[in-house]
Here is the input.
Amino acid sequence: GVGRGWPLLAGERGHYELAAGRVDEARRLLAVMRRQTSPGGLIPEQIWDTDDIPQRELINGCPSGSAMPLVWAHAEYVKLARSIEEADNARAEARQLLEEHRALIQQARGESEQILAEARKTRDSMEQRMRDETEAERQRRLEETRREIAAETSRALEQIRAEVADLTLEATSIVVGRKLDADRDRELIRE
Here is the structure.
């Protein structure tokens, strides 16, 4: 006889498609195996893969009269169905992990933005404090300089008064022709 299509091979091809990452194609091949079963759900060794011959009950895509059930084919069907389920579960878990990862990244971005904002705030505060301290230091030095100028001016004026008093005493002594009492007369001149 002539060999016909084997549902078992659709199952094996389904595993290949899964390994290649084509889950939808593996799912399609599992559905092909399911359509090739007998009315009772048994998987045959071979299916009829040519034109229908109704008088011999040979319909394209249906059991061809070969060995049925073929346990090997049933095992292949069960393995493929389970592998697809595991792939779906793995995909769902991967999606969940991806969403969790995205949420963590978003949270980290938010936290980093908050940390950056706090760092900028701290920097601005420190810069302002430095400006304030610099201004306070400048004001302190200015006040100190003013006090020094006032003290020096006071000393200079005192010295000028003393020299004026001495010159006045000397001039008065020359005008009156006698020596004046330096201490008593100097007090009068200073006042």
In short: Residues 173 and 182 are 10 Å apart (CA to CA). The two ends are 149 Å apart (CA to CA). DSSP finds four helices and no strands in the chain. The chain has a mean pLDDT of 89.
